[in-house]
Amino acid sequence: MTRWRRFERQENTLEYWEIRQEGIRCFLRWGSDRTPGKGSTTTLNDEEHARRHAARKINERLRKGFTEVDPPCDPAEAEAGTPVLDVITGAAGPHAPVPQHLPVDGFDHVYCCARTPEHPMGFFEYYVLREQGRSAIRFAVRAGSHQDGVVAEFLEFLCSRRDLAFDGRSHHKIPLPSPVGSFDHALFCSPALGRACAAYPGAAARVATAFPIFNCEMGDEDPEVLVDARIHGHAALPYSDWGRSPYPVVDMRFDIQPSYYRPSPKFKVYRSADLKKLMDVLPTASPQSWLEVRSFRGETTRLEPDTTMSFADMLSLLAN
Do 171 and 232 form a contact (C-beta atoms < 8 A)? Predict the structure, then answer.
């Protein structure tokens, strides 16, 4: 993980701007001594794009009169030796309930925290610890779909692979030896990709993510940028809901005129609802219009105004 770089400008107020590149992501923080700070994250196609993006942003600030200064102490460095559960517990506000991480019977170094389980949006949060608690793998299950037996099956699989998400790769899609509920695969995400503890800077770089998925929900050869879009973007996979139906990959590129969608010459991640809207207008679009849909297997189907294929047939093709 690279360190933050900080830039300041003194005018009517002291303004600050900070940037950090980590892999394909650029993190920004900015504000002043009179206003609350804000932040954003930009995910690029690859590390070289991210490096150029960061350099461009820095040059913009230098042209606006900002000067680079030493950054403040990074919580990730200050708390590097503190067990992750201690970091999370210690971050509770003075008026917030302190999370209780209780050991899970039958599993070594596995803890669970029930977050308002009686509420419709409540969930159970699991941590599989490694390195004497200095790092962990996290997953969460919505209370409405939580089943002890299904969770135990996944924990048995996960506990034998505690190190997988920390091997330097951004993600791993692994077939499950036997189904976990209805799921047939698992996805392991590095801390940067999973963002499991983004709210806790002191532990964020030490907590990876894992959860079960359906085979059709993630391409075998997906680059990190696509996986990021699938689990965090506008078509985000509801991976904490373990009672859901499959959400098959819907990658599209198209040029359909007229439509409410701008032409997209490159494959991007979309929702099934977007696919249906485009298929609905395609038969009456201009003769030059086209739509290409790519499945999790990497197979591409091209549709044109005179193509006869129903939306249901397309979904079946994407899910199998």
Answer: no
